[in-house]
What does this fold into?
Amino acid sequence: MATIATTPVEETKKAPLFLTPQAIAKVREIMATQDPIPAGLRIGVVGGGCSGFQYSMAFENQGGMMDKVFSFDDLKVFVDATSLMYLNGCTVDYVETLEAAGFKFENPQVKSTCGCGSSFNV
It folds into this structure.
């Protein structure tokens, strides 16, 4: 029986979170109005709100030493190591309705949210 030597294939890491095309477009639109234009977007989870945690988004000029950097259509997204475990499987979308417009987080890890929907518990 002959064995065939195979070359190891480098695995491409899948980002633990996903940004929809609408979210990416809106972030780029807002970034273009900043002076100077930021290097990317920071997405995180911080303590607070009615249910214990809330999402945070801010522009970033450079990542920190403990950050993971993901690229979505050349948009750099910085996530700190602690937030990463809460954002695994999360989808960030930008939604416009007659009542409101804003970024919407859909996170499969969330066990409950507050009445206003701005904070969550895992």
